[in-house]
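Form 7-S
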Amino acid sequence: LLIFCLLAVSLVWTAGQNIDAYVFSFFNKPGNRPRWLDRTMMALTELGNGIATVVIALVLYFAVNPHLAYEFIFGTLTLWLVVETIKFLIKRPRPFSKLKDVRVVGTRARGKSFPSGHTAQAFYMATMLLQYFKANVFIAVVLYVLAALVGTTRMYMGMHYPRDVLGGAVFGTF
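Output:
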């Protein structure tokens, strides 16, 4: 929680914004990208949205434990409410509305930028599933790599700065 608060406070530093813009441009370079890469990024980013959550909750309900599915959904709703409240309070604009030459893949997201809700959801799902199933190190690495890929897609698609993604990762894990 301390790391998340430090990230939030760092948003007022000009040097931090410059670093954000530089790292963001590394992932979101304008120009032609292969269609298959755009499609892959659009598919991976969906792992952090509500539809993926509902699908996972249904699998948990019918195949594992109904109580776990309820816990999963209520945790997701709580996370969403807190993330939206933080976005409302911080009011950080998305990169495509502040920077020049931002390449937007898909439709422009509404709302504010900090923290990344998709990334927070992906890390929340990874953390919760790991805690419940007490998975081995290999499964933990796979789940957290997938969650990190969701965060990477948010920058690739032009929706979030790196600190938005880091904030979402820390908050979702917390």
